[in-house]
Amino acid sequence: MQLPEYPESYWRRTAELPAFPKLTRDLETEFAVVGGGITGLTTAYLLAKEGRRVALLTADRLLSGTTGYTTAKITAQHDLIYDELIAHFGEEKARLYYEANAGALAFMRSLVAEHGIDCDFVDEDAVVYATREEGLHKIEKEYAAYQQLGIPGERYDTLTLPFGATAALSMKRQARFHPTPYAAFLANEIVRLGGEIFEETTMDKFHDGEPAKVTTKDGNTVTCDSVAACSHFPFFDNGFYFARLHAESSYVIAIKSPYDYPGGMYITANEPKRSIREVTYNGEKLLLIGGESHKTGQGECTIEHYEALKRFAEDAFGVDEIRYRWSTHDLVTLDKIPYIGLAREGTPNLLVATGYRKWGMTSSAVAGRLLADLLLDRDNPYAELFGPSRFQADPDMGTLVKETADVAYHFVKGKLEWLKKDPEELGLDEGAAVRIRGRRCGAYRDHEGKLHVVDTTCTHMGCETEWNAGDRTWDCPCHGSRFTFSGEVVNGPAKKPLERL
Asked: What is the pTM of this model?
């Protein structure tokens, strides 16, 4: 069974989004929301619903970032998290985390029901399960945390899936959906309520003051009262977010299977991670198999991650066809709780939402609701929990030291790596780091035989990018920036493209 030749997201391929113009003029508005995923759309929708003037601006098309490459689970069960939250933050904050995400799920469920959004919204239990003995202890501790926090859950020892488990823990009545029709509804409502949306509009800099200003890469200025940065990585330069976040990549395949799937959303408690859920959109049933997480730019030959998921799917369910494959790239904070709120102390008109740790659908709704409340000067019980300025010695300090050492290691490794491959040795659709006249370069030969050569030095802080064969991109192992094979920026924190040679 062959993998699709090119990565393509099921969500973006199977449903339509409205199109919006590029910003080609200066603009004045009350609120500027930067980012075209569920976070930005939810924030702008809630502001427009309050009768406020809002403009949403995104660097690409809507859902071109993380939202378009999700597994689209809407759940407060974020892997094994509640025992850890109790240990680091205490019972009260752990309960607030659950309540924020449970409230986000309820908000999305209500919106879908009220407006009849045809987005394959299905209530299902979310289940984390262990397949080895070392996961059994983790499940037991997490179940105890559920009981302590009053989270509806059930502990059991067997699965209805065709493989064994040592333990499993479910969170009741969570949900899955198709994010594209949901996002299309939000976008259309923003415009209907008087808001504006601009695509293909890359924001460059934030200028503090009253009013605030943001300038685009093309030189236009947006003047507003406040800015909410809801993009994958914050577009502004301050706040040291590059040091407080790290990027992780994971992979998904969408398969047709003869297996009669019993329902439910599953994820393993142990490594390697395996995520399983069903899609039932427009009369078609597919299984989504995800996992193989690693730090961006630090994986093995990335196509092998897709191959590992394929082998798992064949062994567990049987595979008639692999329809789609794609990768997703998420940011993780020092303490695993997203940064949502004031981007930095002393700048009350700049807000941020980032660091969802692969649980972006529920976290996006949490963020949209929290950001809207902050922008409208309303109290929100979760503001302190998610506040980006927080720093707790345990676990933040240990994580920061570890991440800093990891960046230093990969910086030096990339500079000292000895490269023997010659660009002329590359076959069709093959890329690699090569050395040309003593200089480290990145070369990719496309299907027509044309050679694309770039300087592999990341334009963010000078680390050397690595070739991602699965997605045909150059990925930075230090801070997670990603570039196309010809050098254009795919994900920040880098803003400038790789130098073409």
From this structure: 0.90
